[in-house]
Amino acid sequence: MSFETILGSAVFDLLYRPDWRTAQAVGVRTHCLAAGAESFVLSPADGVVAGFVVLRSDQNESLGIIEMIAVHPEHQRHGYGRAATPRAAVH
């Protein structure tokens, strides 16, 4: 069974077709600019941006939600995402 069959054509097209970067950029902007959202940059000691985390508070449920976490491919597998998750939870 293919991902397209599992996800449906509309979702699959957004994720995997040639224009997925545009859809991803819209998603990032939407999450970063949403009401109650807080964005944090992941940066190693050399000051280069390695990724980001977007948090959103849900006051009705008294909880925080990690809406999006992304690490640049050159910085993946170095623990940035793993390190950001508990720090985001504390924030």
TrEMBL record:
<dbReference type="Pfam" id="PF00583">
    <property type="entry name" value="Acetyltransf_1"/>
</dbReference>
<dbReference type="InterPro" id="IPR016181">
    <property type="entry name" value="Acyl_CoA_acyltransferase"/>
</dbReference>
<protein>
    <submittedName>
        <fullName>GNAT family N-acetyltransferase</fullName>
    </submittedName>
</protein>
<feature type="domain" description="N-acetyltransferase">
    <location>
        <begin position="1"/>
        <end position="91"/>
    </location>
</feature>
<dbReference type="InterPro" id="IPR000182">
    <property type="entry name" value="GNAT_dom"/>
</dbReference>
